[in-house]
Design a protein that fits this description.
The chain has about 425 residues and is of the alpha/beta class. Helix content is about 45%, strand content about 10%. The protein starts with a helix and ends in a 6-residue tail after the last helix. It contains 14 helices and 10 strands. It has a 5-stranded parallel beta sheet. It has a 3-stranded parallel beta sheet with strand order 1-2-3. Helix 8 runs parallel beside helix 9. The structure holds L-rhamnitol and zinc ion. L-rhamnitol binds next to loops.
Length: about 425
């Protein structure tokens, strides 16, 4: 049977439970996911030679890390050619491109340092998202926007402001809003003597960053919280409560990274609560294994639950979806492709569920049927719909894409010595 024939069969089976597969695919085609540039080079960036800092860590030494902007762009090109649909690219400020030996410190970054990325985005017809980089820098250890050293704190405030200008430049050049996410690693290894002071300074720093004029219809500022980092086990300045309250009071957007909570807490359960109070919401989808390990996103239960909360609450247009992981122990192109395709599969799985019917079963307290129907759904011909989607989007079906990565690995990645 051809992919089309399989799809036609699957379509009938799904129609039997009131699910329109054509409609689901049409919706999926228009859900952009922001692909993080930093999987390609182990989060090192181009503006420094030092290691990754900020209490985050990549592990592994798989060959082929992108070492230059050209290599990173080439790798992103490859990955995007294997992912169905049009997405966005998520950049960090540390990925500025300097020409003719010029360098600009983080507080002096300008749109021109990202001109090549804009050209790259234009070539792909995609939008860019942005992140100030408050780590991997001599002035970032140990504190940035919460620093008790006023000079250091001001340096990072200027960085945040510079990033707002760059974000607006992206939005204007590309005609697509730019999501700018603020995350700081600031925290303490051991029990703090003052928990309030650092947060008060962080709050003031954010106020100062956001005090410069910027177009709120073009730049969506987000704030990402975190429960702990390596070497910051006892306290983080940007805790969940801090970030939620700050975002709510100041009209910016909360960003939840599902690696940033206690291990039995799930972001899927937090999404509907925020949806009731916030217009928009941002996510970093990742996979934490025992800690915020940033493994590649799989088609696993929590990713599916996250997607369900987005889809069945009609929140597709209210959520900024981005991925955030960095695995250096496997082929980095594969990491991107698997993560992106899995996020899309999770969305498709949610789109192919009879959500209204399941809600009704819950409300009528018919928990037996609810369980059975959800379990039966798992064996519906989901793969046939997914494969058809891939072929319609002009990307390889099933694991066929892997052959292309292997060829690329041999011809390009392994040549990087
Ligand atoms: C760190 C945060 C943050 C970073 C990226 C590189 O724990 O998740 O989002 O991973 O900014
Ligand atoms: Zn994150």
């Amino acid at each position: 049977m051809t992919t089309e024939q399989r799809y036609e069969e699957a379509k009938k089976i799904y129609a039997g439970i009131g699910v329109d597969t054509d409609q689901a695919l049409e919706t999926l085609r228009h859900i952009p996911i922001s692909m993080h540039c930093w999987q390609g080079d182990d989060v090192l960036g181009f503006d420094q030679d030092g290691p990754l800092s900020g209490g985050i860590q990549t592990t592994g030494d798989y060959p082929g890390r992108a070492r230059t902007p050209e290599e990173l762009m080439q790798d992103i090109d490859k990955a995007m050619s294997l992912i169905p649909g049009k997405h966005k690219l998520n950049l960090h400020a540390s990925y500025g491109i300097f020409e003719d030996g010029e360098i600009a410190d983080r507080d002096a970054l300008e749109p021109k340092h990202f001109k090549k990325w804009v050209e790259f985005a234009k070539k792909h017809g995609i939008g860019l998202d942005f992140n100030p980089t408050f780590f991997s820098h001599p002035k970032a250890e140990p504190f940035t926007l919460s620093s008790p050293d006023e000079e250091i704190r001001q340096f990072w405030i200027r960085h945040g402001q510079a990033c707002l200008r760059i974000s607006q430049y992206f939005a204007e050049e590309l005609g697509k809003p730019c999501v700018m996410n603020i995350w700081i690693p600031d925290g303490y290894k051991d029990i703090p003597a003052d928990r309030l002071g650092p947060r008060a300074r962080f709050k003031d720093s954010l106020d100062q960053i956001l005090s410069i004029p910027y177009d709120k219809s073009k730049v969506y500022v987000c704030l990402e919280s975190k429960v702990f980092g390596i070497g910051k086990e006892s306290y983080t300045v940007g805790s969940s409560e801090f970030c939620l309250e700050y975002a709510a009071k100041n009209g910016i957007i909360s960003l939840m990274d599902n690696g940033h909570y206690h291990p039995t807490e799930v972001v899927s359960d937090k999404i509907p609560s925020l949806l009731l109070f916030q217009d928009k919401l941002a996510l970093h989808v990742t996979r934490s294994v025992r800690w915020d390990s940033d493994h590649v996103v799989l088609f696993d239960d929590e990713t599916k639950e996250i997607a369900k909360e987005i889809v069945r609450n009609d929140a597709i247009g209210r959520i900024f979806l981005a991925l955030d992981f960095f695995d250096a122990s496997i082929n980095r192109i594969v990491a991107w492709v698997v993560g992106m395709r899995n996020m899309q599969k999770a969305l498709l799985y949610a789109l192919l569920s009879p959500n209204q019917r399941l809600k009704e079963l819950q409300d009528s307290e018919d928990f037996t049927d609810l369980m059975v129907e959800q379990e039966e759904l798992k064996l519906y011909p989901f793969g046939d719909v997914w494969n058809y989607f891939c072929s319609r989007c002009g990307v390889p079906e099933r694991g066929e894409w892997m052959k292309e990565v292997r060829t690329y690995e041999k011809e390009v990645l392994l040549q990087r010595k």
